Amino acid sequence: MTTIIKNGTVVTADLTYKADVRVENGVITEIGQALRGGTELDATGCYVMPGGIDPHTHLEMPFMGTYSADDFESGTRAALSGGTTMVVDFILPGQGQDLMDAAKVWSNKSTRATCDYSYHMAVTWWGEKVWQGIEDSAKAGITSFKHFMAYKGALMVNDDELFNSFRRVGDVGGLAMVHAENGDVVAELTAKLLKEGNTGPEAHAYSRPPQVEGEATNRAIMIADMAGVPLYVVHVSCEDAHEAIRRARQQGKRVWGEPLIQHLTLDESEYFHPDWDHAARRVMSPPFRNKQHQDSLWAGLMSGSLSVVATDHCSFTTEQKRFGRGDFSKIPNGTGGLEDRMPMLWTHGVNTGRLTPNEFVAVTSTNIAKILNCYPKKGAVLVGADADLVVWDPEKTKTITAASQQSKIDYNVFEGHTVKGLPRFTLTRGHVAIHDGEVRTQEGHGKFVPREPRPAVNRALTQWKDLTAPRPVERTGIPATGV
Ligand code: DUC
Ligand code: ZN
Ligand code: ZN
Ligand code: ZN
Asked: Is 137 exposed, middle or buried (0-12, 13-18, 19+ CB in 10 A)?
């Protein structure tokens, strides 16, 4: 089966040039001029780019007494519809559960995926079994490990657990990841707010101020430095966290930050909307912030101190959000965005002049493919790479509305936003899943993408290097003990 993408402009993270692209049996086999022979897709006026990679999704995840509403079928259909051709979902082992047993549960769920996927493993508790599970996970191609510093009493790990797990992850050549919020402070603030009668969705934001994120981000960076492991900080929402990441990078530490499209384009005023449902639908952690924080995130993307734009896609229906009526702490945390990440970032990033099309490719696809060690199979337009491609029409517009979305939920946090820049075609390993607005996804087409470990590069740069082989100092004149 041969497909030729004709008359487009190839845009990668570093090059822009006119060329046709030949796709055979799911991979790119030729890039050149006036290619012939096969089914042709007309890319006139369009950019041919690596499909997006969303490294942060929660599909069909058990969480806060319910399950996130989008599963691997609807979630990946939404992804492809918006030009994203790979998702990385989080395996969430229960307390005491073997990591690889949890991996089996995820692997059953993801048989329905319509595009390729990989996993991060969450470390939600600590013990002998987890120590072994980290190695087993890495051997199975799951080489990134997420730690929750929040959700006390559920997913949260303490600093001793964080340090032990980080060291183990470093030893297997893995990547440590954190949800960085100070869970102890969040729990105290939540209890205080509820006691004082602050029960509405706006109090969710008050319970998680930027300081809890800035503190935890800095702590995670320092612990990763002492453990000798590279660190990826998910959903960076504020200047306080960004500042810690910027400083670490400037010191030569291997630290990456991931802002979400929601935090880049929506702000805290959403929580003060008079309609309870409107506000509750936007409850997520970390919460939306004010304009100053948004400006900081955009500056980070523009300067390169922040590397990846994701979604944390974790969708709940209005009915599920209503579990928290009368108590904001029971509103399931999470918002959707899989279908809208690429068009929203193009509209607010490229069309405004903040990002070049090449930078757009970098932050939506290539950077994360490199960080997660699946480049150039993914994130590239190169001969031999998977034909995960998006033919992007920069002139195409639409107004986002829940009525026409792929996600299963009954609303969209970007409702009413007009975007300019949308896929004309989306290809997943050669299969044309989105064809000029028509959805032709195939349930079960998606395959697991295993990833190789790599050496813990952080070691070479940190001060910890000097302390790796501590030895006692020979001393004379030791004072006598006692009086
Ligand atoms: N934050 C959310 O809003 N939802 C899922 C998990 C998380 O950390
Ligand atoms: Zn999180
Ligand atoms: Zn998440
Ligand atoms: Zn908008």
From this structure: buried
Whether 315 maps to a domain, the answer reads yes
- Ligand 1 atom with least separation from CA of 58: 5
Whether the pLDDT of residue 462 is over 80: the answer is no
Express each pLDDT in 48-80 by its tens digit. 999 999 999 999 999 999 999 999 999 999 999
Best of 54, 57, 58 for a ligand 1 pocket test (most atoms within 8 Å of beta carbon): 58
Q: Is 333 in the pocket of ligand 1 (CB under 6 A)?
A: yes
Residue with tokens 């120590």: 131
Find all residues with CB under 8 Å of 454, minimum gap 6, and list them: 143, 173, 373
Has residue 433 been placed in a domain? no
DSSP codes joined into one string, 288-350: P--HHHHHHHHHHHHHTSS---B--B----HHHHGGGTT-GGGSPP----TTTHHHHHIIIII
Peptide bond just before 376 cis, omega within 30 deg: yes
pTM of the entire predicted model: 0.96
End-to-end CA distance of the chain: 89
- The answer to whether position 235 is within a domain reads yes
- For 341-356, what is each residue's pLDDT tens digit? 999 999 999 999 999 9
Q: How many helices (H) and strands (E) does the chain have?
A: 15, 18
Token pair in block for residue 86:
């790979």
Domains in the chain, number: 1
At residue 423, does pLDDT exceed 50?
yes
285 lines ligand 1 (CB under 6 A): yes
- Residue 386 · residue 412 · CB < 8 Å: no
In this prediction, residue 473 carries a pLDDT of 84
What are phi and psi for residue 335, nearest 5 degrees? Answer: -135, 160
Please check the confidence at residue 468 and state whether its pLDDT lies above 80: no
Residues facing residue 397 across a β-bridge: 420
Mean pLDDT along residues 274-284: 98
pLDDT for the residue numbered 460: 42
Radius of gyration of the chain (CA): 23
**Does residue 21 form part of some domain?**
no
Atom 5 in ligand 1: residue holding the nearest Cα: 334
Here the CATH number for the domain that contains residue 205 is: 3.20.20.140
Cα distance between residue 288 and residue 421, in whole Å: 25
* CA 312 to ligand 3 center in whole angstroms: 5
Q: Which residue segment(s) compose the domain that 204 sits in?
A: 51-378+393-418+448-460
Q: How far is it, in rounded angstroms, from Cα 138 to Cα 147?
A: 16
